[in-house]
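Quick start: what a row looks like.
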Amino acid sequence: MTNQIPRYREDVLTKFFDYIRSGESFFVTGAPSAGKTRLMDFLMGDNQKPDRDGQVVTSAQVKKHYLGEPLASKILLARVDMNRLRSDNDWGFGFFELLLNTILFAFRRLEPTEDIAKIIDTVAELDSEVIESKDDLKAHRLFEYAVDMICKTYGFRICFLLDEFDETYQTMPRELFAHLRAVRDTNKYGVSYILFLRNTPDKLRPPTDNESFYELISRYSLGLGPFSREDAYDVIEQIGGRQKVILTPELKEGIYRLSGGHPGFIQALLKIVKDHQPSARPFADIEWYAKHDPVEEEFRKIWIGLLEEERKGFLAFVHGSTPPMSKDTGKLLLTKGLLVPEARQNSVTIFSPLFQYWISKQ
């Protein structure tokens, strides 16, 4: 195994783990197809493809790379899949049982030690007791007990990674947010919540509706924009290699420039190149690429994932119409990486020539 992990999303992950080291809660926001799931997979060591040396990067290696030891061994990354919640009417019992079960799965992924074995046995018993009771209050209390035991008795810090959390953030009862804040306050910096969202929390729900939790996660944030050139090249090589696309330097640079580094556009363009090689057009022919179904689908996903104010802002930006894009909207689009700074001072542009062309036709 090599000592170095792939230099993937270093600009994001350096800050990500700085926040975790400090015990902070925060949110990560990115547009549809921006790579939130891929980033989560990288953090958790899920669905990883072997690198050029035939090795697979593990979650433990990622944590050690950014946090060092002994802290890395005491940080538990617990990926919460809200799709596992039985129904929207199951909040009181189901949500806390899901968190308890997520902790159990996360510890089962770690290298076994005597302490970890004890934690697994205890949490498994608590989870079984909760499931058998189907009692809201019991689920809440036993979740609190498990977290308190893990943090104070065994010295672990739990980071709950709440994936695709937009809909849940909008609909979850405010009382549950208050409970989550209380669990964190009881354990100080032993518990962190990291929300992965398509939009910022204040755009999903009035901050006054879950004020204490909003205060906790809104102090720090990360924007997940397009890939850097280095990351984009790596992804192009990985996907292109699987699809058996002949990747010349010119092809890789053309895909990077036309996609703007956006993961969804990279995959769409590689699909077009694969289907049309060697007759694929020069990448300067934006109109030709824009009319193909894979690219059209990415346009659709990004557009429907935008807020109405963002759509109007983009149209005003491209067409020079009035009213112009507001500063707040511009800041939001910069955070998502859909607008990117240009070399000229105080100037921005749309991240991808493809997306700019599509908006110009609206």
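That is the whole record. The chain has two domains: 10-223, 229-360. The radius of gyration is 22 Å.
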